[in-house]
Amino acid sequence: MQRRNKQFLAGIIAVFLLLSAFLTGCNTEKEQEKESKTEPSESMEFQPLDTKNKKIVAEFQGGKISEGDLNQYLNILAFLDFQVSMMLSDPSMKEQINEFKRIILKGYAAELLIAKEVKREDEFRKQAQKEMQTLEKSLKDPSMPLPDEQKPPKNLEEAIKGKGFTKAGLEEFIVRSLQRNEYFKSQLKGLEYDKVKVNHILVAYDLDPEGKKKRSDAEAKKRAEEVKKKLENNGDFKKLAKEYSDDPGSKDNGGEIEGSADQFVPEFANAVRTLPLNTISDPIKTEYGYHVVKVLERSKESMEKASDEIKQQKIQQLNQEYIDKKLKVKILLPEGDSANKKQSE
């Protein structure tokens, strides 16, 4: 069921932007281990966390969050996002879950504070109710795949029954998410972003998804320097990208990528902002490998006229800055606390 909800989430749940990199990192970390083991059973489902515990797990400016409240938040996330439910169901992910809970608590505290600033609750409640109607329709869509013999729910109430939260709790979750999105969206006015168009060739450290063939840092750098020399000797970027690049998203497109510099990892972003136009860069090291880059175009563009994807990337950045610089939160979770102590309500 959770796979259906991605469309519903798009554009309204800022917390998922905050968590996307964390979840991706967890999936990457587990990938090689899963290659050598039997895949977890599809029947292993997330069991809702206990929402009755009144123990305080976070304190922030003018407020507190109980373990029960945190668990309800996690239950909603697990319902809405398949990756979250799978992670919380995996006994081997205890360490990652502990960090996940801390991220959630910071985001939750930020939501509660921002809701007080944005207000306009009636307006956002009407929007939330429309989003819930959209969710209900997606859950009842007969074209979406379901496990064998499972029928689509008759309504939203049936879909969330036994999931560790109520319809009212889900509505409050969406209201706060909309308030937070609006708060940061209003800050986009007058902002600009660096729009870039570049050719690049990535020489990665590790090519084989099974981990059997690894390229060392030195080997990757040497190969990237070889690419640079060929390009400086009038080599065809398109042909060399197809031959050398380990970036599946651009290697068949001449290594061409376009968008906001903010969407890239810091080392790459800094390079595309500062490199002279139409020159071949030295190999640029990032977490992915070594990049050889040529910046074709660069301009300052209004954030208000940017694509929704670029706007959401900026909202994610502003959200993180708020948490890092404005939020004063004390996390009271004990070391080694496990989020996968699952109890049905």
List keywords for this structure.
345 residues; Chitinase A, domain 3; 2 domains; three-stranded antiparallel β-sheet; disordered C terminus
Q: What would the average pLDDT be, to the nearest integer? A: 83
The gross shape turns out to be elongated
Which regions are unreliable across 5 or more consecutive residues at pLDDT < 50? Answer: 31-43, 337-345
Integer count of domains: 2
Secondary-structure element pattern, one letter each: HHEEHHHHHHEHHEHEEHE
What percentage of residues falls in helices of 4 or more residues? Answer: 40-55%
Q: Classify the oligomer.
A: single chain
Major sheet attributes: 4 strands, antiparallel
Return the structural class: alpha+beta
Radius of gyration: 23 Å
Describe the secondary-structure layout.
Elements: H1 6-9, H2 14-35, E1 56-60, E2 63-66, H3 67-80, H4 82-89, H5 94-118, H6 121-139, H7 156-160, H8 167-185, E3 192-204, H9 217-232, H10 237-244, E4 256-260, H11 266-274, E5 284-286, E6 289-302, H12 308-326, E7 329-331
Antiparallel strand pairs: 1-2, 1-7, 3-4, 3-6, 5-6
Mind explaining what this structure looks like?
It is a single chain. By secondary structure, this protein is α+β, with helices and mostly antiparallel strands. It has 2 domains: 2-188 and 317-331, no CATH class; 192-302, Chitinase A, domain 3 (Roll). It has helices spanning 6-9, 14-35, 67-80, 82-89, 94-118, 121-139, 156-160, 167-185, 217-232, 237-244, 266-274, 308-326; strands at 56-60, 63-66, 192-204, 256-260, 284-286, 289-302, 329-331. A 4-stranded antiparallel beta sheet has the order 4-3-6-5. The protein has a 3-stranded antiparallel beta sheet with strand order 2-1-7. A hairpin with a 2-residue loop joins strand 1 and strand 2. Helix 3 crosses helix 4 (82-89) and helix 8 (167-185) packs across helix 12. It is elongated, with a radius of gyration of 23 Å. The relative contact order is 0.16. The model is unreliable at 31-43 and 337-345 (pLDDT under 50).
